[in-house]
Each structure stands twice: as structure tokens, then as C-alpha cells.
Design a protein that fits this description.
Oligomer: single chain
Number of strands: 23
Keywords: Repeat, Signal
Number of helices: 0
Strand content: over 45%
Structural class: mainly beta
Protein name: MORN repeat-containing protein
Number of domains: 2
Largest sheet: 21 strands, antiparallel
Shape: rod-shaped
Order of helices and strands: EEEEEEEEEEEEEEEEEEEEEEE
């Protein structure tokens, strides 16, 4: 019984969901409980191996009211629904379990209308990912928070397994890196805070995954920089302070001072010299 399919990932690492196909479709067919004769709507024509069992009431020959719906196919138990039906279709509050391709069962808790999940809901996949939020057009499109098994948290709008526009993420990478901020198309994009495993720190604008725009950098060894970035390097005007307290102010190209540079030593002594490719002329 194809009440649903395995679909979607939600963003960069994937929220495997239970996909479209929960809504009624014009090419679907009624399935009949072989014991009670009660009918339930299937969005696709069932195969001979597929069957359904309904435990609730059956006015006019259609499953209705509260009850338990169990459906199976040639591979065994395909899913189970505990909740409300109307006219043979999921309608009202309910809890739906569907077999996942990788084994186990995905779970959705929420409200259904005419066989389709609507409004606020909670989804937990067999792999341990969770989604909490507002469904826009079925389970494969919604706004909310995704929590992945590795602890990554993603917030925003998701459709067909991808973030729509800018989303907000909070993650720890296996190498110890942590990022909290905006992302787009699977890359850091917008404002964010990145802390490396060695405790290097950057807070500022990102473009296509690298620092680009205004930002602040603090190195694990005590070095600091505030100013312009482009392509992941210091490019533009900024102020750099080394571990000894020497301050360098001016223009930077590919991370190195360039042009007329003001240098202020820890004792307050200031000099203006011309630099090229990181060295004085």
C-alpha cells in the first residue's frame, strides 16, 4: 500500500522523511480490509501482495473515526497509523509509522486533512533525525527546526531535501570545527561564527563558504584582525594586532599589508611606512 514514499533529506546532511504520496491522488484506488470489508484509500493502485487492516468503525463501508490502521506489502509490515480517519482517508490527529528503506520506521505525529499531513508536526526518522515545525505542502516541504543524529541543528525552510534560501545552522564537525550562523546551498553564507579545532576564531560575513566582507579574526596564538575579507583572506582595509601587541593598520592584499601602513608598537611609538607583499620598502 503506497500511502507514502521514502523521500527527502532536510538540508546538507539529510533528513530522510516520509515524503509525498500521503495526499489523495486521482489514480489511487480503494483497498478493502479482507476481514471486515471496510475500505481505505490508497494513493496508488495496490499490488496483490498489499493489504490493510482497520480496527475502527466503518460507516457507509469506509474507515472512519478513531482506530488503528495497519498496512503491509510483499516485504512485510509497511506501516501503522493510530488516529482518526474520515471517509476512508487519514483526517484529524494521528501518529503514522512508515517503513524506512534503510530499516526501521519513520514516525510522524500531527494533523491530517484528506489524507495529507498539514500544520504543525513532528517527524522522527529511523536514522535518528528529527523535524519540528510547520508543514507547507506535505512532509517534503516545511518550516522549522531539523536536528540531525550527529547533533547538527538547522533552522529554516526545507523543500525536497534542501534548504530554501538562507537557513541557520549550528554544527560540530568531526575535526572539532564548530559553526553557528547562516548557510545557503549547503555552504556558510551570510553572518556566522566559526571556531576551528585549534581555537582560531572568525565572526563575520561569509560568501560561498569562506570569509568575505566585514569580519573579526582571533588566532589561537593571540593574533587578532578586524576589517575586510575577500575570498577567505584579509583583503581590504583593516587592523591587525600580533601576539606581541604590535598594531598594523592599513590595506591588506591576500593577507599581507600593502601600501602606506601605520604601525603602532606596544610602547606607543608610531611609524608610517610603505609595504609591499607583507614587507617594508
Amino acid at each position: 500500500m503506497k500511502l507514502a514514499r521514502s523521500v527527502a533529506a532536510a538540508s546538507a546532511a539529510a533528513l530522510v522523511a516520509m515524503g509525498p504520496g500521503l495526499a489523495a491522488a486521482s489514480d489511487g484506488e480503494w483497498m478493502k480490509d479482507r476481514i471486515s470489508g471496510c475500505e481505505v484509500w490508497s494513493v496508488e493502485p495496490p499490488t496483490p501482495e498489499e493489504g490493510v487492516s482497520w480496527s475502527g468503525s466503518c460507516p457507509d463501508g469506509k474507515a472512519s473515526g478513531s482506530g488503528v490502521l495497519v498496512f503491509w506489502d510483499g516485504e512485510g509490515l509497511h506501516g501503522r497509523y493510530v488516529g482518526e480517519l474520515e471517509g476512508g482517508k487519514l483526517s484529524g490527529e494521528g501518529r503514522l509509522y512508515l517503513r524506512a528503506e534503510q530499516g526501521g520506521f519513520n514516525e510522524f505525529i500531527g494533523r491530517f486533512e484528506d489524507g495529507k499531513p498539514v500544520g504543525k508536526g513532528f517527524l522522527r526518522t529511523a536514522g535518528g533525525a528529527r523535524f519540528m515545525g510547520e508543514l507547507i505542502d506535505g512532509i517534503d516541504h516545511g518550516k522549522g527546526v531539523v536536528v540531525l543524529p550527529n547533533g547538527w541543528v538547522l533552522k529554516g525552510e526545507f523543500k525536497d531535501g534542501k534548504g530554501v534560501g538562507t537557513i541557520v545552522v549550528d554544527y560540530f564537525a568531526e575535526d572539532g570545527e564548530r559553526y553557528v550562523g547562516q548557510a545557503e546551498n549547503g555552504k556558510r553564507h551570510g553572518f556566522g561564527i566559526l571556531t576551528a579545532a585549534d581555537e582560531d576564531f572568525y565572526a563575520g560575513q561569509f560568501v560561498d563558504g569562506v570569509p568575505d566582507g566585514q569580519g573579526i579574526y582571533k588566532g589561537a596564538g593571540g593574533e587578532r584582525y578586524a576589517g575586510d575579507f575577500a575570498g577567505g583572506k584579509r583583503n581590504g582595509f583593516g587592523t591587525s594586532v600580533d601576539a606581541d601587541g604590535n598594531v598594523v593598520q592599513g590595506r591588506f592584499i591576500n593577507g599581507e599589508p600593502d601600501g602606506m601602513i601605520l604601525v603602532t608598537e606596544p610602547d606607543g611609538t608610531q611609524t608610517v611606512t610603505e609595504w609591499k607583499a607583507g614587507g617594508t620598502q
